[in-house]
Amino acid sequence: MFKALVLNQEEKKTIATIEQLDDSHLPEGEVLIDVDYSSLNYKDGLAITGKGKIIRNFPMVPGIDLAGTVVSSEDTRYQTGDKVVLTGWGVGENHWGGMSQRARLKADWLVPLPTGMDSKKAMMVGTAGFTAMLCVQALLDADIKPEAGEILVTGASGGVGSVAVTLLAQLGYKVAAVTGRVEQNGPLLEKLGASRVIDRSEFEEPARPLEKQVWAGAVDTVGSKVLSKVLAQMDYNSAVAACGLAGGFDLPTTVMPFILRNVRLQGVDSVMCPTEKRIAAWEKLVELLPESFYEQACTEVELDAAPQYAEDITNGQVTGRVVIKL
Ligand SMILES: NC(=O)c1ccc[n+]([C@@H]2O[C@H](COP(=O)([O-])OP(=O)(O)OC[C@H]3O[C@@H](n4cnc5c(N)ncnc54)[C@H](OP(=O)(O)O)[C@@H]3O)[C@@H](O)[C@H]2O)c1
Question: Where does the record place the Enoyl reductase (ER) domain (predicted)?
């Protein structure tokens, strides 16, 4: 028997309870895994609280990522005892996810845990940190060099934002962090490597089509009017990696930054990211994240605390990364 957080729907409300299950309850897949850690991402918050239509089939075990140990495998790529990490592929949305002591998954979805990382560290990074790495990689691919100028990170005290700030600083970029919680999180953002912290209210005023050019690159986790303001302030030939919608999924912008300033808007998706790109991103995360990141920007909780943290993350009240110990 093992413990899992199970979501059910009653009268259109999502109800989360901890249940005792056995392996026969698990969905199909080639690899059976003892989950060491899962993590809490914004999408998990939407799924567990029912505030977002993430899950369509109930009962469902949430948890869009996990790290654990292979118990048994019908696929020759994985052997008993191997350490693996999983993010995305719809796990925790339409296939039972990581907030469970056991999971059964497709071998194609797994990535071997990179050398230099353990399960806990992998989930301190989690989907959010992995996505931050993809965003930073998008700026590297766009050939944005540190000497080009400042890089802006929005939603900076969240999971994606805090890792993006850390990674960019480690790569030698000058980072400006935008947060709605300057007093609470300013010192942490500076410790992670931000050279200045800007109040989000400055990005919530309606944007003119073009404003003063300030940013050589940007990682946006917020969307909506904040992204629109960011676009209006981008330098000539700069690039924005956009991955999130914490402030809304609309984008009230104009074509002006694109057609007059050669600004590139690169979307970033982590869910269907191809395996080769995943492996490269995990290796780079091991290389770039300093020990201090894990000490400063992560909280560990037990499974029964997940519903409360889910509520908090949807209200923008979580700082850094939250890992769930299974
Ligand atoms: N494309 C992908 O594959 C992918 C993968 C992972 C995450 N995401 C998306 O990226 C976003 C961030 O995810 P996360 O896990 O880092 O979430 P998170 O930890 O909740 O971080 C989001 C941050 O955005 C800011 N924020 C919250 N509400 C806001 C609002 N109404 N207006 C403006 N800013 C607001 C807050 O930062 P401050 O307090 O510092 O302002 C918050 O900490 C989410 O939208 C998530 O769905 C996408």
Answer: 13-324
DSSP lists the bridge partners of residue 258 as: none
Q: What is the C-alpha separation between 33 and 291, in angstroms, rounded?
A: 27
Q: Is 186 in the pocket of ligand 1 (CB under 6 A)?
A: no
Domains annotated on the chain, with CATH = 2-113+293-325 (3.90.180.10), 127-267 (3.40.50.720)
**Ligand 1: does its nearest atom lie under 6 Å from the Cβ of 298?**
no
Q: How far apart are CA 153 and CA 297, in angstroms?
A: 16
Which structure tokens are listed for 167?
């990674």
Ligand 1 site-directed mutation target among 42, 182, 226, most atoms within 8 Å of CB: 42
DSSP string, 160-207: HHHHHHHHHHHTT--EEEEES-HHHHHHHHHHHTEEEEEEGGGGTSPP
Q: Could you tell me the distance, in angstroms and rounded to a whole number, from the CA of residue 160 to the centre of ligand 1?
A: 7
The 10s digit of each residue's pLDDT in 150-203 is: 999 999 999 999 999 999 999 999 999 999 999 999 999 999 999 999 999 999
